[in-house]
Amino acid sequence: MATGIVGTLFAVSIGLVVVAAWNQVNSAHQTASTEASNLTDVYWYSRSLPDPQRHTLQTLATDYATTVVREEWPRMAEDHTLSPRAWRHVEQLRTYFQTIEPATGAASTRYSQAMSRVQAVLDARRARAQMADSGVPPLLWAALAGCGLAVLLPAVVCGSPVRKVHVTVAAVVGGLVGLVLFLGQQLDFPFSGGIAIGPEAFEQALTRFTSIRTLGGAA
């Protein structure tokens, strides 16, 4: 009876953890895509600016995206933190953007829209910073491991009198417990582990930057 209760508790708990972690992965993927998409819109806006403003804005956006891909993503995978250099780049982008003085009319409208995209980049980045470091608490993992052990022990101690059946049942139960714990651990942090989100959104943004740059100015 007690074993059944523990088994049910373990199954429900690990199921909730896996579902929550999977939802977190999906949200993190959407957040990274939103950040890169808004950054691309800012780069596109630069076409409407004269030099040297256009060149400066494009350089700042490119430096930020490049740092995110090359430095920040490995850092998130390793210690779940964002790059200070990338923070500096995005703050420089916002600061420089605020120095632009658009003309009235259509130019002012485009500037306001682009400024909202800059803010969206910052908002998505802050959300990504929280997601990168929001894993399952260690105490909960310890509790789940304890429940898993409680589920496994009866299969090991009180199994079938037939040795082959006893070993098979114990191995299957142990394998299932280990598998679900491993799956939950792999989904724990969205930017690290075996099912980590990669920097593809920013790599695609850098490719788009090149395409936009070849179009020249005068959006």
Automatic annotation (TrEMBL):
The chain crosses the membrane at residues 139-158, 165-184. Keywords: Membrane, Transmembrane, Transmembrane helix. It comes from the Bacteria. It holds the Pfam family Bestrophin-like. This is DUF4239 domain-containing protein. It comes from Nonomuraea wenchangensis.
